[in-house]
Amino acid sequence: MSLTPIGGLPQEGLRRKITAASLREFKLRHEPITCLTAYDYPTARLVDEAGVEMILVGDSLAQAILGYENTLSVTMDEMLHHVKAVRRGVKRALLLADMPYGSYHLDAKSALENATRFVKEGGAEVVKIEGGEKRADVIRGIIDAEIPVCGHIGLTPQSVNVMGGYKVQGKNLGEIEQLMRDAVTLDRAGVCCLVLEGIPREVAAMITAEVETPTIGIGAGPECDGQVLVFHDILNLTFAPPAKFVRRYGDAEAVIKQAVDSFRADVKSLQYPGDAESYHLPRETRAGLETVLARKRAMRG
Ligand code: KIV
Q1: pLDDT above 70 covers what percent of the chain?
Q2: 31, 133, 197, 210: which one is catalytic?
Q3: N or C terminus: fewer CB in 10 A for the chain?
């Protein structure tokens, strides 16, 4: 039996499948890693085909897609539904599933069960877990079960109630020390990458230099080994002003509004559908139908 090596054939070069293990090569080569969120099949295809290396089904799904207030309400089943859709659209990128609030907080056993569901049922290749030192045991348990884990420290949105809002973390010496400890602990635990969210550039740079695992920043400055953004943020699909770190690369809200307005106006003014957008009878059927109708008119008249 011949097997295609994981990571693809060497001649596939730049289009090689991204794996959890290959992320470190990017760090060693100083090649920035790109990551975007996706929550559905068409977005996953577009992002994957554009060559973005990592696709995250983030729990930001809660607000971006499901209209919840924050990420705390989204469930395992809701996340899985979207991970499966994204899986069907991704060929090359590394697929990460975000463990939602409550799915890894109760005990190590249920955390592992939930991580396993993402792999077995959803086809995820990596799971992401928020929290540093205090989540290290749970993270080790999942890695021991052969599931790569992406860490996530700094501004962790699932801690919104404890943090008292979405606040930049690591602004004083005590917090910086804790962040360094969190990063080093997760690095030693063997995470395949580490999201740094909402921390000062200087702190993210120190962590990036200290750890072997690639850091993926969001609101953490340019020295990180890669950058992640929420798809709906870069396309203006959030109905809210963007955070400081967001760069808008398109205006999907304007494009969609214009298309919907035009459709509505065309239907109301009988401009849609036109003859070219309608199906027609075959010539013989039409001739036959006209004969029948003419006969009926003659009988009536
Ligand atoms: O849920 C999410 O989208 C995230 C990132 C943006 C890192 O956790």
Answers
A1: 95
A2: 197
A3: N
